[in-house]
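Students often ask why we bother encoding 3D structure as a string. The short answer is that it lets us treat folding as translation between two languages. Here is a chain of 206 residues written in the first language.
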Amino acid sequence: MAVQPDVLTMKIVLLGEVNVGKTALFHRLKTGTFSASASSTLGMETVEREFTVDGEPVRLQIWDTAGSEKYRTLTANYYRGAAAVLYVYDLSEEESLFGLVAWMDDARRFQPDHMAILIGNKCDLESEDVVLTEATIQSFYQDNDFELSLCMSAKSGQGVDACFHEVARALLARSSGANATNGYSPGVALDDAQRRESQQDGGCCS
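And here it is in the second language, the structure alphabet:
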């Protein structure tokens, strides 16, 4: 299907350590379902999702690494033209958060002007299984110049649409020359607008 010329289209790439749920998130966006056995294919994969922000359509073209991150073989082609990078970590694995530093170095070398967005996956876990504290995540967020910090669950679908809607909103604001984070509350939890949307999906990160 040809892309309509009047629809703002933004390339988004997923980055993060192995087993944080990037492929599951990609599968959720592509099919609307969760698959514990979702496996990567050779080469890069993309899926497009369209969101309406204040009456204006925004199309997000999301790229998955297709498992290449196992070998750290991502090239400049993966990053080229990316408006935003979603740095995905696992709320139950502290190493997955701090392991993002190396990926940030790569992305900022190949695409220095991208919007950096921190994404915590597996917010459906029981509280005793979540090892990362809000203070730790917010400190990492602030120390590494992220522009948004959101959370979701690729498994249950909680917060997924709400979070990507906020990504679309931030990118639209940036493309319009506005402050992308104006009106947002940076941090782990969804802000009021996101919470209202996520509650319709079952809630997340409350």
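Translate back mentally: Residues 180-206 have pLDDT under 50 and may be disordered. Keep this in mind for the problem set.
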